[in-house]
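Expect chain and fold; thus:
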Amino acid sequence: MHIPQLYRNEDTDAVRAFIHDNGFAILVSQVDAKPWATHIPLYLDKNSDGKDILIGHISRSNKQWKDFDKNEEVLAIFSGPHAYVSSSWYDHENVPTWNYLAVHVYGKLRIVEGKQLQDQLGKLVDKYESGLQNPVSVNGMSKEFVKREMRGIVGFEIGITRIQAAMKLSQNRDEKNYDRVVNALEKRGDVNSIEIAKLMKKRK
């Protein structure tokens, strides 16, 4: 994706944390030589060599998986909070814009099965069940049930080849107008505006 230098996020730890916190992603690949996208949770993990990978699965009825081996590279898109920024908030004439955070992860995908897929499912379920009053786990389910359910999905891992991370938070504004944007976002009060305002305060 196009990211002006000013908005590039090159903090590796921050990018990892972003992927962890915003794990519901869009997996993009080619199917019949056309773009195809599926909305799914992805989990940032490490392989046996200690390298970062993404793991996930899609429904077997989703034809996207049938062309996985035809893709030299796939794309996983992770989106964070975003908010419209009105130019009326500045002390000078300008154009409106949008503040946002996003990460694009590119990589080579391979299908996984059997015990490896079951382990991946366990990690994914544990992540989202953590902290719940009555958490469920894959290990707590009957073997017959898990085996049956696994027949309906196709698991995969993505060996990461490159990552692009954008963090557009009014970095091109002077301190006075930066603060004006923060204040206006807080006054607007919707969830995304509040989150963007918090991030702007944090980076300042």
Notes: The mean pLDDT is 97. The two ends are 25 Å apart (CA to CA).
